[in-house]
Amino acid sequence: NDGSVTASPEDAYDSEYLCPVSIDGQTLALDFDTGSADLWVFSTSLPSSEQKGHTLFDPSKSTNWKALSGYKWNITYGDGSGASGTVGTDVVTVGGTSVSGQAVEIATKVSSAFVSDTANDGLLGLAFSSINTVTPKAQHTFFDTAKSSLSSPVFTADLKHRQLPGTYDFGTIDSSKYTGTITYIDVDTANGFWEFTGSGYAVGSGSFVSSSIDAIADTGTTLIYVPDAVVTAYYKQVSGASYDSSQGGYTFPCSATLPNLTLGIGSYHAVVPGQYINYSPASGSKCFGGVQSDSGIGFSIYGDVFLKSQFVIFDGSSTPRLGFAAK
Ligand SMILES: O=C(NC1CCCCC1)N[C@H]1[C@H](O)[C@@H](N2CCCCC2)[C@@H]2OC[C@H]1O2
């Protein structure tokens, strides 16, 4: 029951990656999010003003749909976006991986950021089921439901930079998708995230600075959010860079040459190419950086700007761990 599904960038800046997911034959484009644990979809139960432009799941058209009476969900994400609604179970298929009895959370309310993100029909959470928001009983993620039917209890992310589709694979580690060896690091699941301790950083050709960085691997977050010491060291090497409070982050002249950012994972040095850190135009001739401060978040976030530079293994065995390799 192993499977592989394409992950297509939603826009020219790789703001998010969307994957086709079939719910009893109804196919929606979902944002696979290793930073949350709810599988929720735009539905015919939303007010029509919030449905516009999205593909909707209609449970009344599903023969395998089973409503969970009295069950509800309500989620708020780190960017302030959120959604809420009701719950049922159905057959969910991702690439070749099909599971029955999967909790599918029907949106009856979504925040404006989701309404306007018309390519996005919902989220498929891939964090640990301990942070699923369904009450009165938390539900399993798609990966947890599928795990026992996979050749190996793993999924991998091979996201790409700019305009290229990548893949999420379930159940196998495809050795054609990476070079060299895989470096594994322990994961602390206490907060429900794929959380680990990074070993430090380097900017461009500069020397590596050893420092413990508490971080999560989050496919649902676009950028890299790291401690101020890293951010300051990085933009010191970018002429014309500055913190722009009106943009809410560091910007620099779009013509700037950006240094690579190396992030340590154990003894492995993961290199994020400088070009990946020119995230998008901000205003005028300034561009918005793909590396920003993690202050106020509580931990660092290695989001898509980082993850797309690597081949990443999310190992859900009894001792969960993360694997990273160059590609
Ligand atoms: O909130 C975060 N990350 C935070 C970013 C700031 C620093 C803390 C973490 N990720 C979310 C992302 O923004 C959402 N967004 C919705 C609107 C369209 C774009 C995507 C989408 O839903 C869940 C996840 O993905």
User: How many strand elements?
Assistant: 24
What is the topology, as strand order, of the major beta sheet? 18-17-12-13-22-14-21
Helix content: under 10%
Q: Which small-molecule ligands are present, each listed once? A: ligand D9Y
Major sheet description: 7 strands, mixed
Structural class: mainly beta
Unreliable segments (pLDDT under 50, ≥5 consecutive)?
none
Can you count the helices?
Answer: 5
The percent range for strand residues is 35-45%
What's the quaternary structure here? single chain
- Distance linking N and C termini: 26 Å
Radius of gyration: 20 Å
N to C succession of SSEs: EEEEHEEEHEHEEEEEEHEEEEEEEEHEE
Give the overall form.
globular
Kindly describe this structure.
- The protein is mostly beta strands.
- Helices cover 8% and strands 45% of the residues.
- The protein contains 5 helices and 24 strands.
- The longest helix is centred in the C-terminal third of the chain and has 8 residues, at 228-235.
- The two termini are 26 Å apart.
- Bound molecules: the ligand O=C(NC1CCCCC1)N[C@H]1[C@H](O)[C@@H](N2CCCCC2)[C@@H]2OC[C@H]1O2.
- The ligand O=C(NC1CCCCC1)N[C@H]1[C@H](O)[C@@H](N2CCCCC2)[C@@H]2OC[C@H]1O2 binds next to strand 3 and helix 2.
